[in-house]
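Protein modeling request. Please complete all fields; requests missing the sequence field cannot be processed.
Requester role: graduate student
Desired output: 3D structure, token encoding
Chains: 1
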Amino acid sequence: MFTYNCRIFQRYDRPVASLAVLADDSPNWRPGAFGWDLFGCRHVLEYPLVKLLDYAPRLEGLLADPNPFALVTAAHLLTRETRGDAERRYAAKWRLARLLYERDWDRQRIIDLFAVIDWMMRLPPELETKLWQELTTLECNKTMPYVTSVERIGYQRGRQEEAGALVQKLLRRRFGPLAQETEDQIVALPLERVEALGEDLLDFNSLVDLDIWLRRH
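Delivered output (217 residues):
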């Protein structure tokens, strides 16, 4: 934040305001400044902050608030609350999805907000499929085909490509360049396998371990 504040000031030669939004789980971590004091020279950036954890007691109010940022904040809190509980996360994600259709928002806003919720609230494949089936039924009843069909394919493909690119980047950083055949194998993996590889590669000692993993999966 300090660096960006300085660079934006240098670029535009105008005063810059910085705001910190803290999404961590520690209620007492509230850094409000950064800087240094050296040889009598003091350089400090003090900034206001928002702690999303503080809004947990106001969850129902956030869900009822028409402000899109309130819904995103609620999604963050529900993601945190349902960590490790797939069924509860499914119920929370389904509730948020229904709320999108109840608001008087345009199609693109609904799609964009659903993309954020979908990214935050990952589900096991079977519950993800169930959610899309429910969404399809909801859209048919409301005659509002917003986030299913083409959008769903785009979300799934985008998530898979992002995960695959990240895994390849981590592997290159540890072991150097990858063979084209290896890259092709990673690209062809379904999303859940790519995510599993992202966890397992921490235990690899060489590219031999990667080859063994790919043959087994």
